Protein 1
Amino acid sequence: MSESRTELSQLGEFGLINRLAEGISTQNHSTVMGIGDDAAVINTGDQYGLLAADMLVEGVHFDLSYVPLQHLGYKAISVNVSDIAAMNGKPEQVTVSLGLSNRFSVEAIEALYEGMKAAAKAFQVDIVGGDTTTSKSGLIISISVFGKVEKEKVAYRKGAKVGDILCATGDLGGAFMGLQVMEREKQAFMANPNLQPQLENYEYIVQRQLKPIARMDIIHELAEFGVVPTSMIDISDGLASECLHLSTHSGVGIQIYEDKIPIDRQTYETAVEFNLDPITCALNGGEDYELLFTIKQEDYEKLEKHEDIHFIGHTQELTKGNRLVTKNNNLVELKAQGWNHLSGQKEDN
Amino acid sequence: MSESRTELSQLGEFGLINRLAEGISTQNHSTVMGIGDDAAVINTGDQYGLLAADMLVEGVHFDLSYVPLQHLGYKAISVNVSDIAAMNGKPEQVTVSLGLSNRFSVEAIEALYEGMKAAAKAFQVDIVGGDTTTSKSGLIISISVFGKVEKEKVAYRKGAKVGDILCATGDLGGAFMGLQVMEREKQAFMANPNLQPQLENYEYIVQRQLKPIARMDIIHELAEFGVVPTSMIDISDGLASECLHLSTHSGVGIQIYEDKIPIDRQTYETAVEFNLDPITCALNGGEDYELLFTIKQEDYEKLEKHEDIHFIGHTQELTKGNRLVTKNNNLVELKAQGWNHLSGQKEDN
């Protein structure tokens, strides 16, 4: 064993993943893409298979004092489906592994499962297996998802070319603001347990946090419109972080425009109420599970009228860097303040 | 929410899985087999894909006071590979999701990964993704595995017919006795920290516990000999429990013979030293990760001379039940004392 000790917090989540991924090579011909995208790509013959996995840990990813188990079950499936969507694929099977402490009743686990089954139905995936075991502390949900994509339609992070148009779906920053509202209500409740949570003006953003809906609708519509994104990623860590991922993998710079970034009115107003900059929330607030993708300029007309696809920027030579053009026409370097799940702190990456 | 509260311990692991599996139906044509076998079976075109997942939790499945991280990494991959072997398939990709507490250094996680990489190389699987996150208490390892099998060669739990021959590979009970030895040495060390662990006479069984090797060699040999098992399962919970699974799924009774059950000499002698019945250890001790399968009588000759395949019994009409024939020619009903991972207690099932 090595004598040196490096703390996990010194590396951060992305640093650790990069360090562990070093020296991992693939040996099977069927492995088309290993570590480094939203899902692994597996050659299954006529099509590609897609494989991804996500783990959700109580106290790290969710707080059961305000997250209903049914919503949590739905979200656990949805975030995995989102990884398959981000490859332009369709999810078909999931495995569900649960670590459970004795604190949970059978009825509680059934509520969790009800949410999973609702999501499975909504996204047309089958729950086909998994594992159930004891946990020493709280709830652990580990899901893997298998999906399919036609070989010529797979969308990697790495495919963007200079001059492509950058698209974002839905609206951004809402899930982050929903979390802020629920945290505030929790603090208020803890200070005075007679208080009822005040959530009626925040329904949309709370829903964005509790029950994100993977954008499979967009994947189906892209197929209908005959558009294959040149690159794609799901927006789980914030728009800025995902832009930088596309940039790194594709070897292009990305320029986005502040006035094009889609922000819902409730997100905007709540951010202002919390003395936060709405744009910063959209850039760095995670868990929206929208899609960020690039298309060729010639495909613009096909999507132009889509109400829920927003053209927020374009790719450029890598030497021009990754930049935000503000409303005042200033150029600001894009930096990701991704959530560091290992330390629970925001980190630059 | 329901007002009643049912404790998890009232149902046990198998009971909970059965309860959650109720009401789960499959909706995709590609799902050939969902919950209920060692792996799910997915139609990917010319072949079947196989998908399985397992979660290992510190303090439940392993004790880091005597389990080296490198061995643990190897074992985590091996037990997942074993699920694919049990379908007569070949594993090709795995995802690795880790929950880590701050107690672990980067070097410790690298040691864990070294073991995983060694197993990946040994079993020719690629580590293609996963997730890394914080855990509030200890180490959580959640792995999913994807494999392939030719459609006409898939082996389910359900395929045994009356009159088939029952085969077990390797030897049984060793992993369980290895665990007993390590637990004893841990107790001795805790009573007197100056004591060195005495493991030199127990190397084989300690290895069986720490670093089980999935029997992919057997899968390759069965293919060479042109034998497709009529049913198969891996021996993770003990021989008796697995016999009952094959019985339930196939709708046949199983008769095994005490004098045919393969037990290594070190396992036998250690069991006697611990005042345990070696046969009981083989029947109910888990984690050997050998294979249990049935073959047609006409295939017997093809495997007859294989040194590591043991013909321990046969199937019979379900009405004859599941029985052990003792050395004295007594008939004893087979009962599974499977390990209950939820309560940490042995349970009948």
Protein 2
Amino acid sequence: MSVQKRQIMQVDEAITKLLEVPLHGTVEIISLEDSDGRYLAEDLIAPHAVPPFDRSPYDGFALASQDTKTASHKEPVMFQVIDHIGAGAVSQRVISEKEAIRIMTGAQLPRGADAVVMLEVVKEHGVDAFELSRQINKGENVSYKGEDTKKGEIILTKGTRIHPGVIALLATFGYSEIPVFKRPLVGILATGTELLDIREPLQPGKIRNSNAYMIAAQLRKLGAHPVMLGTLSDDYDHTFLGIQNALKTVDLLITTGGVSVGDFDHLPRVYEELGATLLFNKIAMRPGSVTSAARFQDKMLFGLSGNPSACFVGCELFVRPYIVSSFHARKPHLTMMKATLGADFLKANPFTRFVRGTVTMNDSDIQAVPAGLDKSGSVSSLALANAFIVLRGGTRGWKKGDAVYVLLLDGEGSEWPWTVLLSK
Amino acid sequence: MSVQKRQIMQVDEAITKLLEVPLHGTVEIISLEDSDGRYLAEDLIAPHAVPPFDRSPYDGFALASQDTKTASHKEPVMFQVIDHIGAGAVSQRVISEKEAIRIMTGAQLPRGADAVVMLEVVKEHGVDAFELSRQINKGENVSYKGEDTKKGEIILTKGTRIHPGVIALLATFGYSEIPVFKRPLVGILATGTELLDIREPLQPGKIRNSNAYMIAAQLRKLGAHPVMLGTLSDDYDHTFLGIQNALKTVDLLITTGGVSVGDFDHLPRVYEELGATLLFNKIAMRPGSVTSAARFQDKMLFGLSGNPSACFVGCELFVRPYIVSSFHARKPHLTMMKATLGADFLKANPFTRFVRGTVTMNDSDIQAVPAGLDKSGSVSSLALANAFIVLRGGTRGWKKGDAVYVLLLDGEGSEWPWTVLLSK
């Protein structure tokens, strides 16, 4: 597994390889109140119709349309008001000829009525009568039982992400306990003698372990449960044992650093000694070309770069779809969109670049501008970025005004953007 | 405050009125690990430079560029390797003439060195020497101290939303405790005799209180802390006392239902009896035209419609910017984008419609299609929608292929989309 043997793989190929050995989501039942952002583990059906009964969508009078047949300005029809109901009340009365019931929005249509006339249409005679001077059609101003959803219909499918609108639907049908996919436990192990904890003061030659905190936040955002396992110094045995131990307690493991070809990059040898199956260790992308994945028994090991930006990109491009696919989500990848490049980016590269960028949507178009310093070690650019600008590999640089694709860091996700993103 | 007196207000006017009496965010200190999605309450400065020292961005040999001046293919220069350091180690040696130190990515540049030559460029003679056959410039392959961030620079400004990239930056600088704006306590009180709890079986004429659960999820998503205060039946005194009590314990209060002009719509009278200042109670929009806001002492009362879709829209258009502005966020409104209408929508309306829709981004364009049933009482459309399609009020309907604006429910937010959205 020396540098010479590394085979370059395209981003889409690498993701395909990952998803061929998927993480299988397991199911748990949680309260509706705790279900934000989780993914449904089952199709759910409507246990009853919605609306659950014929109801009035307005304030008005419920009546039988039949009785309005002759109504006109010249010969208005007089109705007797025999009851008065608000939403939640059910009238015990049945409407007979030329009778009506005063009904408020959301109340159940009384027996004998097949239409509602709005308050402003009639001329009231006290509280007990009104005259109507136009014909009302059957079904006018009635929200019929089941017009929104029929009993037994599938209302939500497995893999649906639970957002406020979904919660509204679940509550409507009385789903208070929800089957969702469990958050997988994802171990995070940072390797590198240079790493200090964020609570330690700086020391010569050392930097703080920002990657672990960053990845933990990325994982929480995509619905996994990060487990911070600390740092490993650049000692081979220490690294091997640390990884071997970590694998016992988590569903998958992310390491940062140690995946390149430097003298202290131990991960390739660790994979070998574990007997893990290497999926990839060199991707045709910048930053993060050393991003690696290997499979140990039923667990995936992701070896991300120790460079903050490269690490971030590796997590979003590879770890994200691997985990989100375990929730059966239909759009596990970052959200792809078209944009106009707002600044020159003249450095050509044979590999496809994922430049941290800022996408601005304004009245006329969508502009994407590189954010901060474009070096794989840059961290300030990560704080500014809301997207990756995808600059396909090739021999030329890119110019302001060029049409590009971007991958948004916030958004609903894409189904499979790679065919579009990587095609020449 | 009867129906006749209601003054129609445009959406942007109503929001302007709200933001003239802003909610003032208060500050708390939380752990970095708990800060996802929160908003910084202060500008933060860099307590040190990043990188904190000159370092090597590659695996190679650190040397003095001066010594390479004469190097060429014909006359390569031989260097002695006097030390070997990985990231985190600091060499105790100082480079003298024709000396070099083997250095790994991330390690501090040794004293006496001013450039790094990459491993693959040299011809190694065992571990102690190599020859170099080209000139190396001063600063070549050196990441200089402070090139990413200088000490004392403002790294993040007040109002920044904390996402994984921001967390990376905070961790880099050792910010383990973060000043953020507190989540305001937002009471949710549903009014209506028809409302059952989500854990109750259906009863004739009644429906479950889905709005409170939906709003709670909307509030959590935008960073507030919902307080579920139950339901109030359509009895005036009960409603008045319930609201008066609720106001004592929360920072702002949302009610659902009771804001229209029906016989049991008590909210207008409650506002009056409380002595609250009405901001608006009729908006030129569909759904949710009865959306109301009133100010009682230093607290805002939002009166949202009882219809699920109208309630949802009212929360996103009005409650969202009111709360998110208290975090000093620069983009407190829903994310505006241009799209192509993917289906006819022929019902003309003098009011601007916010149609629940599904926005799909594909290779060629961004399509927006209405989701499900377009009635204010519809709830299934909310589960499907990822955006509002904004159809400006007027005398004509809208056709497939028309250019429209959409407001995305997921996204970074917009600064002030209203000028664009509502202009003719």
